[in-house]
Design goal:
- The structure is a single chain.
- This protein is an alpha/beta fold.
- It has 6 helices and 4 strands; from the N terminus they run H-E-H-E-H-E-E-H-H-H.
- It has a 4-stranded mixed β-sheet.
- Strand 2, helix 3 and strand 3 form a beta-alpha-beta unit.
- The relative contact order is 0.11.
- This is 1-deoxy-D-xylulose-5-phosphate synthase.
- Keywords: Membrane, Transmembrane, Transmembrane helix.
């Protein structure tokens, strides 16, 4: 459920402008301090093939933890972003259309525990990128392993057929 003090329309509008959004109760000085670094982290995400990233900063966590994920999911569906992170002090949620939930969850625990929001956001991007397996490479490696194994199996079978043991009883 979306908390009453979270204005999804305003947050989506801010994300549409520059991929960074602040809740209505975040002090202006705090948002002015954080925005340049968060914009840099968003650019870092784009530059490293993470995909488009939106970062939302709320002034406090909702009373119910699952509400944070609901906010993130609604913003993801309401924007053209690939991944949305909603962050409140020592809490948050990350959702994505392009990264697995397992990769996001592995990266989010250190992220949400880090008070350095800008540095933690860059590290989150790097952690998710490091966790992502390149499926084309994996498929090629599997096919190559099957071909090599098959080749050795056929070669070994041919050698055995060529060496028929002599019978101990000869005519």
């Amino acid at each position: 459920m979306i908390p009453a003090d979270v204005d999804l329309d305003d947050l989506a509008r801010q994300l549409g402008e520059d991929s960074v959004a602040f809740g209505a109760f975040v002090p202006a000085g705090k948002s002015t301090e954080l925005e340049p670094g968060l914009l840099d982290a968003v650019a870092h995400a784009e530059a490293t093939d993470f995909g488009s990233l939106g970062v939302v900063v709320l002034e406090r966590a909702p009373a119910h933890a699952p509400d944070m994920r609901d906010v993130a999911q609604e913003l993801l569906m309401g924007t053209d972003l690939d991944t949305v992170i909603v962050r409140a002090p020592f809490s948050g949620a990350a959702v994505s259309d392009v990264h697995s939930r397992a990769d996001l969850e592995a990266a989010q625990y250190p992220y949400f525990g880090n008070a350095d929001l800008v540095g933690a956001t860059r590290q989150f991007v790097d952690d998710v990128n490091a966790a992502t397996v390149g499926w084309p490479f994996t498929a090629i490696a599997i096919v190559l392993a099957v071909v090599i194994t098959s080749t050795f199996t056929v070669a070994a079978a041919r050698r055995r057929v060529g060496r028929v043991p002599e019978s101990s009883v000869q005519a």
